[in-house]
Design goal:
By secondary structure, the protein is α+β, with helices and mostly antiparallel strands. The chain is 35% helix and 21% strand. The protein has 10 helices and 13 strands. It has a 7-stranded antiparallel sheet with strand order 1-13-4-5-6-9-10, with helices on both faces. Strands 8-7-12-11 form a 4-stranded antiparallel sheet, with no helix packed on it. The protein has a two-stranded antiparallel ribbon with strand order 2-3. The radius of gyration is 23 Å and the shape is elongated.
Length: 324
Amino acid sequence: MTLVAAVKTFSGLFAGNPTLLTTGQFYVSSVMVEALSVAVNKAIADIQSNTYTGPLKAKVADLKTQFAALRDFAYDPLNHPLGSSVTTIKSILGSPPAGATADPSKVLSDLIGAPMPAGKGSLPSEFAWWNGDLKTPYKPGKTTFARAAAESFWEYDQCFTTTNRMATTVAATRSRTQGAKAMSVSGFAGGKKSSGKIVDEVGYNKVLLKKYVDQIKHQLDGGFVIVAGTASGGPIPTNWQTQPNHYLLVFAYEGDTFVFWDSDSQATKTSLGRAFGKLFYAKDRLSTARDDADLETSGSNHVHSGPGEVRHRYQVTTLQGFPH
C-alpha cells in the first residue's frame, strides 16, 4: 500500500469526526471555541437586527474586536495573552436587563464564564471525551470561554495521552498476526551529537536501529501500529533517552519511509495532508530528515525547509507497539 493510500484508509476511520485529525490533542478545546464563536455571532446578529433597540448597536465593532481576542486566548492561551478583553467586554455590556435571559447582553455575558484561568489547573471534565469513542464527535453543550481556555491549557502537554488513545482506536480496526506481541524498545538512541551546522542531533546505535526498523515493518505488517517517542525540535532535553518530549503515531510504511499522524497537528503539514508526516530511515537515523542537509535546521523551532510544508524536526528515541 502506498503512503497516500494508507493516509486515505487511516482518515476513513474517522470519516464521522474528521476535525479530530486536523486538530489533534487540541480537538476538544477547538470544538468548544467553535461552538462559542457561533453563539457570539448569533448574539451580535441579534443586536444588529431591526427588532433590537438596546444600547449595544453602536458597540458592535468593539464587541467583535474584543470577542475575537477572547476567542484567540481560549484557543491558544500561551501565545495569545488575555489582556483586558474580559474587562472591556463587561464594561461594554453593562448590567443585562433583569429577567431578560434572551437579551444579547445577557447571552454574551454568560458566554464569558469565570474564573478565567491563568495557567494549567486540575483536569477539566471536558478532557474525559478522550476516554470514549474517538470516532464520534464531541458535543460541548453549554460552555464558556473560561472553560475552553482551561481545556486549552491542559491540552498543551497531552500528546502522550491523546496519541495513545488514537493508537488504541486505530489498532482495534486491524487484524493481527495470531500470537504476535507488541514491540516495546528503547536504548537504540545514544548520545547527543553536534557536527557542522547540525545541532541537537540524536546519535543512534546503527546495529540496533537497523534491527528495530525491520521490526517496525514486521509489526505494521502484522496489524500493529507504533507510537514513536521522539526528541522534538531543540534543544534536546537532558532526559530525552527515557522521557521523549513528543509522540507520533506510525501506521504504515513504504520502503524505508514511514507515515505518521502528529497530535500536534499545526507542527506537521506535508503533501499527505495536515498532521500527516514522514519518518525517514536514512543516514543511520530515524527522523523527519531526509538527509544531513535536511537535518540542518535553523532557529529555535527546528522546522525543516520545503515549499508549502510545515515539518517540525522529530528524531525517534523509543518505540511502543499497539495494542499491548
